[in-house]
């Protein structure tokens, strides 16, 4: 067995995508075992490797880890992307919870009925531009650093870049009123490990389409 983390999830982004992002940003190679059918998921459940019968699940350092936040916290701590002390971790966690809420709204959009999609898309754009992005813009302005916490790349920055790119898929000019976030996006996108992950052919997953929605509905 290789020492690479092994990720168990569907071929979609879902809750695993932030884990893929963080591993890639940390420069860690990983393997993926895709759940393609209901039987694949049942096998994992029957093997007793899913603590709460749910994925994502990541095999890492001899553990079979579940629960997205626990996995992200572990990887961030292991690869020095989780601040230098308890206070910095608290800030990172607060920022990450915010981007998680925004990304959750975007993630669920393709699974919603067609007649509510337009309304929900408008809500995402409204929340991104009035509730979430102003917080990160202000944080960068107030401390004048390149990164959100401790002037060093952390889980909070990786998560924010992922959220920005997802929001831009909803509305390409969504950052038009946020010059510091535009600059942040440019800087973080060019960090070599992240730049590599953003190239075609990487393990980054494309936006969820109708075909994937149909597959996911059959599995879960």
From TrEMBL:
Gene Ontology molecular function terms on file: glutathione transferase activity
Domain GST N-terminal: 3-83
Residue ranges of domain GST C-terminal in the record: 85-208
PROSITE patterns: GST_CTER, GST_NTER
Catalytic activity, reaction form: RX + glutathione = an S-substituted glutathione + a halide anion + H(+)
Protein keywords: Transferase
GO BP annotations, alphabetical order: glutathione metabolic process; xenobiotic metabolic process
SUPFAM superfamilies listed in its UniProt record: GST C-terminal domain-like, Thioredoxin-like
EC number: 2.5.1.18
Matches recorded under InterPro entries: Glutathione-S-Trfase_C-like (IPR010987), Glutathione-S-Trfase_C_sf (IPR036282), Glutathione_S-Trfase (IPR040079), Glutathione_S-Trfase_N (IPR004045), GST_alpha (IPR003080), GST_C (IPR004046), GST_superfamily (IPR050213), Thioredoxin-like_sf (IPR036249)
Family that this chain belongs to: Belongs to the GST superfamily. Alpha family.
PANTHER family cross-referenced by the UniProt entry: GLUTATHIONE S-TRANSFERASE (PTHR11571), GLUTATHIONE S-TRANSFERASE A1 (PTHR11571:SF107)
Protein name: Glutathione S-transferase
